[in-house]
Amino acid sequence: MPLPEEPVPLYGPEYKRDPYPLYTAMREKCPVHRVAFPSGVNAWLVTGYEAAHATLNDRRLGKNHSLGNDGWRALASIMPEPQHSQLQVHLLHQDPPKHTTMRKLVLDAFAPRRVEGMRPRFQEIADALVAEFPASGPLDLVELFAAKFPFLVLAETIGLPRALAGEFRREWGKVVAPVGPKDPRRPEYEHLLHELQTYIADVVADKRETGGDDLLAGLVTAHAKGLLSREELDSMIFQLLVAGQEPVTNQITTALIALLRHPAQLARLSADPGLLPQAVEELLRYDSAFELTTWRFLAEDADLHGRRVPAGDSIIVSLCAANRDPERFPDADRLDFDRSPNPHLAFGHGIHFCPGAALARAELQIAVGTLLDRLPGFRLAIPEEDLNWVPAVLGRGVSGLPVTTD
Questions:
Q1: What is the rounded end-to-end Cα distance, in angstroms, of the chain?
Q2: Would you state the pLDDT for residue 353?
Q3: DSSP characters for 211-230?
Q4: Which residues contact 97 (CB under 8 A, 6 or more apart)?
Q5: For the chain, how big is the Rg over CA atoms in Å?
Q6: Collapsing DSSP states into helix, strand and coil, what is residue 331?
Q7: pLDDT computed for residue 1 by the predictor
Q8: How far apart are CA 213 and CA 108, in angstroms?
Q9: Helices 149-158 and 230-243 meet at what angle, rounded to 10?
Q10: Residue 45: in which H helix or E strand, if any?
Q11: Among residues 41, 240, 249, 307, which one has the fewest Cβ atoms lying within 10 Å of its Cβ?
């Protein structure tokens, strides 16, 4: 498809429903493009696999918001003060050596061996949710499963007290949406932000009183020992609660939609659950819910894969575009459960590789396997064109997924 004049708009229903034709056109022209987001923010988007892989490992690029220029901060750094300084100094916005110190605090909780040991409990959670499905009528797999399962798993993994877990509201995750100061939704946004900040304070108070050997208790202890400031502590809990569940919710939906679009692969996976690990890797590559990375910045003007990028301009990598690059993945637009090797970038790469990747993989395997086992012959209950793709800036997913079964 022909490319519009730069900057290329990365928003709108058509784009969110299927961004891949646009990504193909961008990759074929050059690896780096100027793009625009609905908030008015412009960025440099990296698309090809090799360029994406190199960018994710480029030591010239930093994640700290202080590196952004005034124009970027005016439009993209939309969380008001003091909340921005109190909640936005987590892992995603840190560079070494601070990033290294903070990352070490969370790695044990998400270690593959620990995740594998918790699989039986995660399966119990999935089974309990499915057992509560209505006996008849269309089932919204977002409302009934995908929006609940990742949070319940996360709560178990990080040690969120059961009473506080029951009080968490999913809409608090909307505080990462691009709601600028002049947006009519701004009052609602700030109200949600204040509620979430109060909730985080309650979590910290509870863990300070009760202690424990879980991740949340460990972070509170790290603060008491001076390893984390109070702002860094709150920010890391904020990141866990918001980024630790919504991407998995969305990935469950993109995986199920991909299977519904490929009935032969759906039938094969239903008949052979042993394929789940490799099938999940291919589903992650085929349509990653974490579509775009968060911002990166150059400290000084420099070349980026043939484009001159000014210091402080925002740089984003399209993980979806990289994962469909035919230069790296033969027949890249085909869903192929036998693809090997499959070095997709769905969890990023380099020092900011998702620390929760092992947990996300286990969740996806359990979620897809459980739903295929308990809902034989499931199919969409509405025309596919009526699915509502979430207008998120960085992620892909649908807000509802109504299905029926045989």
A1: 39
A2: 96
A3: --SSHHHHHHHHHHTTSS-H
A4: none
A5: 21
A6: coil
A7: 46
A8: 11
A9: 150
A10: strand 42-46
A11: 307
Which segments of the chain have a pLDDT < 50? 1-4
Q: In the prediction, which pLDDT does 4 show? A: 47
Distances (CA, A) of 179 to 80, 97, 188: 11, 31, 10
Would you call 383 helix, strand, or coil by DSSP? coil
162-185 confidence digits (pLDDT tens): 999 999 998 888 777 767 777 788
Give the pLDDT of residue 77: 67
Bridge pairing between strands 32-36 and 8-9: parallel
DSSP 8-state symbol, 307: E
Q: Which residue has the tokens 């879980």?
A: 214
Residue 220's nearest CA partner among 239, 196, 200 is: 200
What would the pLDDT profile of 143-155 be if each residue is shown by its tens digit?
Answer: 999 999 999 999 9
Domains and CATH numbers, the chain: 8-404 (1.10.630.10)
Cβ contacts of 2-6, under 8 Å, gap ≥ 24: 3/29, 3/33, 6/33, 6/34, 6/35
* Overall size of the chain counted in residues: 406
CB burial of 40-68 (b: ≥16 within 10 Å; e: otherwise) equals: ebbbbbbbbbebbbbbbebeebbbebebb
Pair 93, 84: CB distance under 8 Å? no
The bridge status of strand 402-404 relative to strand 379-380 is antiparallel
The rounded distance, in Å, linking the Cα atoms of 263 and 269 is 10
Of 320, 302, 319, which is closest to residue 311 (Cα–Cα)?
A: 302
- C-beta of residue 353 within 8 angstroms of C-beta of residue 251: no
